[in-house]
Write a structure and sequence with these properties.
- The protein is of the alpha/beta class.
- It has a single domain, classed as HUPs (Rossmann fold), CATH 3.40.50.620.
- It is 39% helix and 11% strand.
- The strands form two sheets. It has a three-stranded parallel β-sheet with strand order 3-4-5. Strands 1-2 form a two-stranded parallel sheet.
- α2 packs antiparallel against α9.
- The longest helix has 14 residues.
- It is globular, with a radius of gyration of 17 Å.
- The two termini are 22 Å apart.
Amino acid sequence: MHYGHLRLAEEAIAHLGLGGVRWIPAGQPPHRGTPQVSAQQRLEMVLRSTENNARFSIDPSEVEAAVPSYTVHTLERLRRELGAEQPLVLLVGADAFAGLATWHRWRDIFALAHVAVSHRPGFPVETNSLPHELATEFNDRRLTDVGGLKLGPAGGIVTFAMTQLAISATQIRKLLANGLSARYLLPDAVLDYIHLHQLYKST
């Protein structure tokens, strides 16, 4: 968890008129290698990052389930909890959205939630940069007014520019592995936790 993640959530609330953001750490991320730290440790870092924002809530269900965390399964669970009519918005970055067509049952996501895509200022999502099948969905579902997110429970796509913070989790892990400072890239409470438990050290 770093300031780029937190700023994305904060700006999404403002730009999209969201009631809040629910953070759902993945227990077993299926699209990447095994994380260097445990799911419980990642959950603890999310808790420490978000504890002072009343509009943020934490959902530990994926960590506790100990099964691969597919987005479509998570959204199905949320629909069972929230009901069929509650508008639900999945927040993704532009890079992640560009790979959406590789996700498990990706088309079913649109029946479960709206999708909000954040991008760098001045660099909007371009359909010619997307795979054809995703570009088609993007064009068919795009909402020009974010107010449309409240008119239905799912199915729309909106984009919004967010303050660009050139911070990446990969960069932070490399700094920590090399014994270098990651201060001011992530909350002090998370950095303290990392140092206390000697996380991300090179072996």
